[in-house]
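Lecture 7, part B: from sequences to assemblies.

Below are the input chains for today's worked example.
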Amino acid sequence: MTISPRRIAILAEGSFSLLDAKTASGVIRYSPHETVAVIDSTKAGRTVQDVLGFGGAIPVVSGIAEALERKPEVLLIGIAPMGGQFPSTWRKIITYALDSGLEIWNGLHAFMSDDEEFSRHAAAAGTRIWDVRKPPANLSCGEARALKARAFIVLAIGSDCNVGKMTTCLELQKCARERGYKAAFVATGQTGILIAGDGTPLDAIPGDFMSGEVERLVMQCDAEGADVIFVEGQGAVLHPGFGAVTLGLLLGAMPDSFVLVHQPTRTNHRPDCDVEIPPLSHVIDVYEHLMTWYKAPKVAAIALNTHDLSSNDSQRAVEDVKQSTGLPVTDPVRAGVEPIFAALEPLIKLKRGL
Amino acid sequence: MTISPRRIAILAEGSFSLLDAKTASGVIRYSPHETVAVIDSTKAGRTVQDVLGFGGAIPVVSGIAEALERKPEVLLIGIAPMGGQFPSTWRKIITYALDSGLEIWNGLHAFMSDDEEFSRHAAAAGTRIWDVRKPPANLSCGEARALKARAFIVLAIGSDCNVGKMTTCLELQKCARERGYKAAFVATGQTGILIAGDGTPLDAIPGDFMSGEVERLVMQCDAEGADVIFVEGQGAVLHPGFGAVTLGLLLGAMPDSFVLVHQPTRTNHRPDCDVEIPPLSHVIDVYEHLMTWYKAPKVAAIALNTHDLSSNDSQRAVEDVKQSTGLPVTDPVRAGVEPIFAALEPLIKLKRGL
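Predicted structure of the full complex, as structure tokens:
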């Protein structure tokens, strides 16, 4: 899936930070679009670089009027309001943006295209509201079609949810492209979809159709001639809340290889779960054993999320996991994904006959 | 969950048979309600016994007017119309039933309470429409709470979908009750919900909430003091379309034991799937291995669905599977579930301190 680059303003009022604005920071870092402004009156006057530590001179502005001076084509809503409802101040910003002809890209669970006021303004201005989490109309069941894909399929799996699977996939896609491979990314969460311009919001899809949705997207990338497809994982197979979604991904994607993403400092499943994360060896064993009936994918390498460790501790954690698993290990953000791609590359070449 | 018995008329126009009317036959066989008439003009004048081979003298009648002579309180819609829409003849039957004060119980994907005409008639008559497949409003995520249940939890799992898990559970519940145990049944599909009067329509629940729904129902039965809870399984863990739903059940129910349901004549996953069902030994291994991090449930016994075999072949199949697995095996419908319950009973007693 390709999407033509657009000029984007991001609404992050009151919560523009690395911690609170995962979607905003993901889009700024990885999307093909140009972020021209971030709206957060509490941080106005600073740059994105000041706030996030990356992103350069993109200005943080006080409101929609100031953002419009930078000529955006899109207003992207990346943060969740408290309580799930749109506060009245947001209503003003969104209708103003629509009246100015901007598209609205909305990653929230609450659909803006269903809002009578918003849809009226969108129609009047001849623009559109894209609710990223709205499931497609025609869902179908999985049929293991991805077993027949000619592309090499890599699924990012995790020891827990919210651990860095999307980032790992996007870094791997970048790395593969730099090395001349036709590399696709299948987005399965709202941030990934906003970045890629396509995908499926798995957390909004009824269980019967999850693997079918993943299969559809994988086979679409395959038909477009991808050498390698990186599929964004969700949850963790033994997560008491989200394991089902993970298995939907396994059966839909039918991966050739896994990349396991893990945060060494985490002991319990998120959020606030009274359930321990199993040892890494057990996690690997469960994923690999589960899929032996199909392609019998192995964990090819491990992406370690060490953002909360010192540089020394991060390196020690990487060494420890290398030792205990015998697999290539790296922190994709701190040290790059090259060791992971190096483990995948011969397998990609083999399947593609390169 | 208990529900007071009601007098039910079943709408099965044009399709009342064991093959086409799974819901109708399930309700007639297992629900605490009294079926007073089945509407199917193509079979009017016969009895349910004539058509299904069980059900006694319940008349099959030509239309709603004739059904009303039998004083039903409920009209149950158990069959799917072609194309998913309600044909106009059905509209007449349903509005007539509503006008006569009957409740409508609807197991279809299409919600009747959302239909303007139906809801108007229901309101005017002071009755209600129960859309069994409508998800509850407040869904929550699974948190492995069922690990703390005091009841013994049995999950019916399958080598494929649509193989007899509900029937096995209902027969086991009956058997346990006859032996003096407080036995609950957690329904997870529309027929089971119509029979039990409660449950969760798992195929309509977004993936993130499936295990949470199962957990909620299991803990409700546990709080009501059940000795043993039989949880209706769905799909099969390696089914390319429905495996995710199955894992949602595993993680939500946190079973103490599995009962595996299998149809020996089936080679490929249903419906029309180009994927072979793994050998039984592999199926057992995958289910047991997957859950070792939690309670490490084992397959205690096997329910064999041999409805499409001769009596001799059925007995041979039972013997074969006994030999190859070393487990108790029976066809619950042809030979009863006693061998399965005998395998579970000591485990139930142990957990309950009986």
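Note for the exam: The two ends of chain B are 23 Å apart (CA to CA). Keep this in mind when comparing with the next example.
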